[in-house]
Structures are given as structure tokens and as C-alpha cells.
Design the sequence.
């Protein structure tokens, strides 16, 4: 308890320090900054956990309330080497797949300004798929307690290593940024209902993105693809039970191409905020079926207050069975309407979120958000660690309540 | 009847007083509003539109036509002036600006304008042809700097 108190005190001290002390000094060759969230969330579900990113457990079945869902602390160092070269290092401590809070490098890059409008970045960076993807941990900079999982959970990759090209251009009143990247990723994915993790490799990952901004309007569209490889003891066990080699090969995730297409629109004035984003993800030849996600957020500023509502939806599409599953055992594994690999790969869900944020200081916000979550019938929802009492055929609606303190320094 | 008239008169007076108070406070507020200006070095001949100034202070327009890097700077001494600049020129609230720069900084894409005292800012702009700054009009020495936008 005293550790939590000390951490909280440090966070509050950081957030209440005079704003702009660090950011203002643009002539300095060395800059230290950071961000974080101190969050507390409670989830009404008894038969599954709500998690974010690659967390192994969350509020719900395991612990009804937890600080692990949103709490994090990040420190960033930027160094100007010369007119054209800059280096940046960001270290983040949050709840990891291996159940630790061990800090990890979430950004480690060398930035080379090739021309006035073009920059090459080498090293580690965040995936840029959606409007807030590359700052998904900087909760201070987003309207919600966390990005809507229905959409932001579509991206199989959060951090990537490689080369990025950024090119910006002014065309009349519009500002445009083009983004191209060639990267790869390697991360640990937690096993549901188990303590271990499975390694995921993504190679040959290409992203292209376009951001347009004019006055209150921001438009962003991206397309990405990559080859995913992973295995887990459970999946290996299931696949070993099949006899059709082509079916085994297709169900496994071995060098399988994923594609993600996104489009987003944000309209923001000093008073109003409208954001809508949509994403479509396909993983070829695997038990993961096609997914789509969309959300709409509307917020209204009243001085230091901003109430907001978000409605979000996740859909699954694609075949629910495979004709090659001909034997009784294969039929059971692949074509069974509930337990089969394909038909059970269904996470359709709808959420309605209402929240309010309050600007406590120049660099700190308090957010209170309530999420009403309703998985479709025959869906796992966007949960993990389901127990056998989870009602897959008609899941209950659940309530997630979060109180967060977001800050930058 | 007299009481009714008296009551009506009092109501009218109260209403008139209320309207007057609102009008006076509005006029007072308007006249009390601090005027701001965007200033550059006297030999800097660049003239920017409101949209270009917005882009400069958002880090979206970073170079003059002669390829010299633009150095935007703000006065941190006047929150109300800054708020009005953000809302009328940038079209963002202070909070949205803070969030915008947090996104830029934590993706390694940009740094916010330098923040200085009025006197330091005017001095900086008067000595640096690349500088462009936001200050209250009453802090300006017209011999040292050139005003390109008043608001």
C-alpha cells in the first residue's frame, strides 16, 4: 500500500510541476519528458477478464477491481545530435504479458531529417494504424480512458522495429503527411487461463498511411500488411488431432499474411469533438476470421470539463466451417458450431461508453468512464480468461467503470 | 392598483438594471480584452496569412521561402491572450493544444514553440530574423520588431 502511495505521490508531483519547464526549452540538445496514467478499474463480469493490449489478466473474473488495466509510466529522452540528426528513447512500465511491470523500450529511434519535409526514422516505434495508435499509451492526449478496443484491438502489432519514411507537404490550406514503413515485430502473447506466454513473430511488415489536416478536420487512412507466425501448446494439440495436412497448414499461423486497412475522421473545435474510425483486418489461411471494427465518439467541452460518449462495434466475418473437415473428429474440431476452431473464432460485441474528463492542471486530467459491454450471442466478446461458466450462446451484458489520472511532464 | 403600478415599475427598473449590468459588463469585458500581436524581425519581409500562422505554431510550416528554419515562440505570461490566440487563430482550446503537442513530442515528430517572458521574446525576435512570436501589443517596441498580425 505504501508503495502505491509513494508511486501516486511521485506521479502527482510530476504532474503538478510547472508546465512547459522541459518542453519550452527548444534550444536544448537534451530533453527529458514523460507521461503516465494512474488508473483504477472495476468490471462486473464473473466469468472472464477485460484486458488491454497484451495483458494476461484484468478486472473481472480474476480480480473484480485492479490498477493494472490502465496504469503506466513512461519516460522519454530526446537528444539533438545536429541540425539533421536526432535520437529518441522512450521507456514504458505497464502491466506486461509475463505479469511483470518490467520497463521496456517502446521507442528507440534515430531520426534523420533528409530534407525540410522528409524524415527517415530507424529503430523502434509505435504502429501508426489509427489516429491514436502511435500515442496509444499517452492517455492524456486522447479523449477516453483508453482507445476503443473494438477498433484499436484489430491491430496485431503495437510496437515495431525497422525503417520509417515520413514526408509532409502543405497544399493550400491543407497539411499532409505521408508515412511508409518496413518493419518487423516480436512479442509475447499471454495464454488465456494459463500463466505462460507464446511468442509471436511478424515479418515483412509494410505500412502506408496518409494524414490530411485542415482547420478543425483531420483525416487518416492507412494500409498495412505483414506475415505472422505463432504457435501455442493448445493450438498445436488441436492441430495434431487433424489428419488433413492442407487443413492443418491453413489453420496454423505460420507465415500467414495479415492485412489491415483503416480510415478515420476527426472534427475538433475548441468546443466540440467528433471522431469516427473504422478498421478491417484479414488474416489469410488461419483460424482467425476477418474482423471489422468501428466507433463514433462525440464530446463537448465546457471549460475544464468534457463529457463524451462513444458507441463501438466489432464484427467477425468469413467462413464458419471448412469442407475439408470430413472425419467426425475433424468435423467436431473445425465445424462444431460452438467448440470448433473457426466458428468459435467470433468476438462480435457492442459497447456504449459514457465518460467525463476534468482538467485538473495544465498537464493533468481526471477521467471517469463507464463502459457497457454486450457480446453478441455465440461470441467470446473482447475478453480473456473465460471460465466454463461463461455463457457463450447468450453472454450477459457487463459494466466496466474506470477512474484514471492522466498526466504529462 | 397603485401597488400594482409600483410593483410593475420596480420590475421594470430591476429588468433595466439587469440589462444595463449585462451590457456594461460586456462592454467592460470587451474593452479589457488584451490585444495580441504576431511579431517578426523588422528586416523579415515575410507576410503570413492566418492559416500560415496557424501552421507555423502547430509545427506544420517550418521553413521560410529562403529555406531558413522558422523559430516560433510564445509569451507564457498571459494565459488569457494565449487562450484567445489558440481559440481564434489555431482553432484549438488550451487543452487541445497541450494534447496536440503531447502527441507530437511522444511520437518524436515535433517540439512545441519556445515559451519566454514578454521582454525576452521581443528581444529574441529583434535579434533573430528567423523568429516569430506572440506577445501582447503593449509589450511591443515598434522600433525593434514588425507586427504582421493583430488580434
Sequence:
Amino acid at each position: 500500500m505504501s508503495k502505491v502511495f509513494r508511486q501516486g505521490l511521485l506521479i502527482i508531483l510530476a504532474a503538478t510541476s510547472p508546465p512547459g519547464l522541459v518542453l519550452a526549452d527548444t534550444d536544448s540538445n537534451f530533453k527529458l519528458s514523460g507521461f503516465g496514467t494512474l488508473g483504477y478499474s472495476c468490471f462486473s463480469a464473473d466469468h472472464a477478464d477485460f484486458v488491454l493490449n497484451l495483458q494476461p489478466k484484468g478486472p473481472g473474473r480474476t480480480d473484480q477491481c485492479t490498477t493494472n488495466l490502465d496504469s503506466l509510466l513512461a519516460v522519454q529522452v530526446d537528444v539533438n545530435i545536429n541540425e539533421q540528426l536526432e535520437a529518441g528513447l522512450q521507456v514504458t512500465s505497464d502491466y506486461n504479458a509475463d505479469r511483470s511491470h518490467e520497463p521496456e523500450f517502446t521507442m528507440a529511434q534515430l531520426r534523420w531529417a533528409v530534407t525540410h519535409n522528409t524524415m527517415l526514422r530507424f529503430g523502434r516505434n509505435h504502429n501508426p494504424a489509427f489516429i491514436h495508435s502511435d500515442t496509444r499509451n499517452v492517455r492524456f492526449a486522447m479523449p477516453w480512458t483508453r482507445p476503443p478496443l473494438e477498433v484499436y484491438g484489430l491491430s496485431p502489432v503495437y510496437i515495431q522495429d525497422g525503417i520509417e519514411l515520413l514526408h509532409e507537404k502543405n497544399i493550400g490550406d491543407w497539411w499532409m503527411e505521408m508515412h511508409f514503413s518496413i518493419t518487423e515485430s516480436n512479442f509475447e502473447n499471454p495464454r488465456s487461463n494459463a500463466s505462460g506466454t507464446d511468442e509471436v513473430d511478424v515479418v515483412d511488415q509494410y505500412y502506408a498511411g496518409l494524414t490530411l489536416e485542415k482547420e478543425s478536420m483531420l483525416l487518416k487512412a492507412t494500409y498495412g500488411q505483414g506475415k505472422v507466425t505463432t504457435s501455442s501448446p493448445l493450438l498445436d494439440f488441436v492441430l495434431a488431432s487433424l489428419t488433413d495436412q492442407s487443413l492443418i497448414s491453413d489453420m496454423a499461423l505460420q507465415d500467414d499474411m495479415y492485412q489491415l486497412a483503416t480510415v478515420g475522421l476527426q472534427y475538433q473545435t475548441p468546443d466540440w469533438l467528433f471522431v469516427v474510425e473504422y478498421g478491417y483486418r484479414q488474416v489469410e489461411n488461419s483460424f482467425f476470421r476477418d474482423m471489422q471494427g468501428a466507433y463514433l465518439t462525440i464530446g463537448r467541452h465546457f471549460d475544464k470539463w468534457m463529457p463524451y460518449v462513444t458507441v463501438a462495434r466489432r464484427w467477425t466475418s468469413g467462413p464458419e466451417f471448412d469442407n475439408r473437415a470430413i472425419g467426425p473428429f475433424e468435423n467436431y474440431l473445425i465445424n462444431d458450431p460452438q467448440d470448433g476452431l473457426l466458428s468459435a473464432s467470433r468476438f462480435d460485441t457492442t459497447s456504449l461508453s459514457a465518460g467525463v474528463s476534468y482538467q485538473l492542471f495544465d498537464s493533468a486530467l481526471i477521467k471517469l468512464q463507464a463502459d457497457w459491454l454486450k457480446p453478441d450471442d455465440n461470441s467470446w466478446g473482447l475478453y480473456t480468461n473465460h471460465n466454463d461458466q461463461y455463457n457463450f450462446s447468450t453472454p450477459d451484458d457487463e459494466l466496466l467503470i474506470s477512474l484514471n489520472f492522466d498526466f504529462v511532464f | 392598483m397603485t401597488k400594482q403600478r409600483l410593483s410593475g415599475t420596480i420590475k421594470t427598473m430591476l429588468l433595466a438594471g439587469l440589462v444595463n449590468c449585462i451590457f456594461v459588463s460586456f462592454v467592460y469585458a470587451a474593452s479589457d480584452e488584451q490585444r495580441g500581436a504576431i511579431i517578426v524581425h523588422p528586416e523579415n519581409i515575410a507576410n503570413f496569412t492566418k492559416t500560415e500562422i496557424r501552421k507555423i505554431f502547430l509545427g506544420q510550416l517550418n521553413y521560410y521561402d529562403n529555406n531558413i528554419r522558422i523559430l516560433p515562440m510564445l509569451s507564457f505570461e498571459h494565459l488569457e491572450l494565449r487562450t484567445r490566440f489558440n481559440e481564434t487563430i489555431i482553432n484549438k482550446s488550451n487543452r487541445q493544444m497541450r494534447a496536440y503537442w503531447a502527441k507530437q513530442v511522444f511520437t518524436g515528430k515535433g517540439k512545441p514553440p519556445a515559451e519566454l517572458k514578454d521582454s525576452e521574446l521581443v528581444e529574441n525576435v529583434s535579434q533573430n530574423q528567423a523568429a516569430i512570436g506572440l506577445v501582447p501589443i503593449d509589450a511591443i517596441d515598434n522600433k525593434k520588431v514588425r507586427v504582421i498580425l493583430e488580434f
User: Anything to note?
Assistant: The two ends of chain A are 25 Å apart (CA to CA). Chain A touches chain B through 49 residues (CB under 8 Å). Helices of chain A lie at 2-16, 149-152, 233-240, 245-251, 328-335.
